[in-house]
Design goal:
Elements: E1 3-14, E2 17-28, E3 32-36, H1 43-50, E4 58-63, E5 66-67, H2 73-79, E6 81-83, H3 96-104, H4 112-117, H5 120-139, H6 155-167, E7 173-177, H7 185-202, E8 205-209, H8 213-219, E9 222-227, E10 230-235, H9 237-241, H10 244-251
Parallel strand pairs: 3-8, 3-9, 6-7, 7-8
Antiparallel strand pairs: 1-2, 1-4, 4-5, 9-10
Helix pairs in contact: 3-5, 3-6, 5-6
């Protein structure tokens, strides 16, 4: 199976601090691939580099064989890679539905004049955007919240809304930064099923950061572990979770 995302020798420094060191990965198309590690290990920095928020100090990033190293975030979204954030980036004063529509609109073709004149083609496109946005809300079980301001949603629903908004850009690679953060056990179980369903129905590759090991072991087919910016293990979830280096990174040295 070909790699949809390939990262070669990626290193990034913040002044004298090396946050990511010689990072290499090949994420197979159609996979659910996990990136784990203790707090401060460089996971979110890795996502920020892949999605263009930072430009790597060294190395290169290939998406579907195309070099996207240092590309602007909106260019990377246009190329077909979308993400969620560890800290929610929801438009709180907008409705739940409009949070989806604003993401979906970047793929529309109607320009300023068609929108002002409300031409037939503009109306057809707007109807299609609404229909597709509502379908995403139904998938996330948020259709009953469509007209509410997003800021009024509970935390678990906001997480699902952010995933729906990322899907509205029609990505081929979906990066999820700690999607289960702050969820209760019931919500975590539902999220696991949802991520698997999204992969299958949308034919999208999922690359996720997660601390919740039930999620990692339950849905990830392969896992990479980093600590202090360096890779310490890679393989199938059960194998990785038994690795002495991984146990030491998470639990500390024996007798410490």
């Amino acid at each position: 199976m070909s790699a949809i995302l390939k990262v070669e020798g990626m290193t990034h420094r913040f002044g004298g601090l090396r946050a990511v060191s010689d990072f290499n990965i090949e994420v197979p198309e159609g996979a659910i691939y996990g990136l784990i590690g203790p707090n401060g290990s460089g996971k979110t920095t890795t996502f920020n580099l892949v999605t263009g928020i930072y430009a790597p100090t060294e190395g290169r990033i290939l998406f579907e064989g195309r070099d996207i190293t240092g590309a602007k975030p909106f260019r990377i979204v246009q190329a077909g890679a979308a993400r969620t954030f560890q800290n929610l980036r929801i438009f709180g004063s907008m409705s739940v539905l409009d949070n989806i529509r604003v993401a979906r609109h970047y793929t529309t073709r109607s320009g300023f004049f068609r929108s002002v004149l409300r031409t037939p083609s503009f109306k057809r496109e707007e109807a299609a955007v609404r229909e597709e946005s509502m379908a995403l809300l139904e998938l996330m079980r948020l259709e009953g919240r469509a007209t509410e301001e997003a800021k009024n949603l509970p935390y678990g629903e906001l997480r699902r809304l952010e995933i729906a908004r990322a899907l509205a850009t029609k990505p081929r690679l979906l990066l999820l930064d700690e999607p289960a953060a702050g969820m209760n056990p019931k919500e975590v179980a539902e999220l696991m099923g949802l991520i698997a369903r999204v992969r299958d129905e949308f034919k999208v590759t999922v690359f996720l950061i997660e601390h919740h090991m039930k999620v990692v072991k339950g849905i990830c087919e392969r896992v990479k572990v980093i600590d202090f910016g360096e890779t310490i293990a890679e393989g199938e979830p059960d194998e990785v979770c038994r690795d002495p280096k991984v146990l030491e990174a998470y639990l500390g040295k024996r007798g410490a």
